[in-house]
Amino acid sequence: MMKKAIALxxxxxxxxxxxxxxxxxxxxxGDAPAPVSSAADNNQTSSVAQPVTSTxxxxxxxxxxxxxxxxxxxxxxxxxxxxxxIKVEGIPxxxxxxKNVYLLITNDxxxxxxLDINVDFFKDGKNVGTTSxxxxxxxxxxxxxGEFSCDEDFNSYEYKVVASDLSSYEVPVDQDLAxxxxxxxxxxxxxxxxxxxxxxxxxWYDVFFYKNGKLVDxxxxxxxxxxxxxxxxxxxxxxxxxxVEGGFDDAKVYFHGEGDNNS
Length: 263
Known about the structure:
The chain contains one helix and 16 strands. By secondary structure, the chain is mainly beta. The protein has one domain (49-260): Immunoglobulin-like, CATH 2.60.40.3230. The strands form four sheets. Strands 1, 2, 5, 6 and 8 form a five-stranded mixed sheet that branches. Strands 9, 12, 13, 14 and 16 form a five-stranded antiparallel sheet that branches. A three-stranded antiparallel sheet has the order 3-4-7, with no helix packed on it.
């Protein structure tokens, strides 16, 4: 009987431990995510849609011949294509958790457009991955950022960016958004003011953190109010952090939002 009692106690303790482990949400950094603070908690006017996480740059990355702004030796294929008037700059960035290419796409076509984007990844000439995405309502004269990931090692990539006309309900808003960025020790505070007449919906932004001219981290967040928009005349703020060792001394921010004719 004593053995059964001891076994029963052990079983209860093991079950309790298992329940605790199952109930703990683990982030890719290995820690439980901190609670998301509301805009009111930070005296800010925007709400954060999801926790901001950051991943340190891999110290093993090959930076000896890396393209400007990148931390790895990865180049775009000469077969990459873009529609007339669309300029593309690729920023490959590898860290301990992901292998990404960020495409900075500038619309110099002279008209607003939608973008369809495809990226193929290659390792020594062999295709190891492919992915597609789209960015709608890109205002003429503005630059947007798209993120493309591959779960395999790659040392080159090929993009295809196709511009098309807007639909009847899509309205560009980026040209009306004024950006201000404040740099702190381990984060930036992004302020966006809507100087137009159309609400800017679901505005998101990418932040590239630099140290001594080299890219050391990337992160992103959203910037809008409780209605998921920046209303005409309003200013919304949110912050984006980095935990990279050694910090940063410069940051570049690229944002994008969309409007619609129903506003």
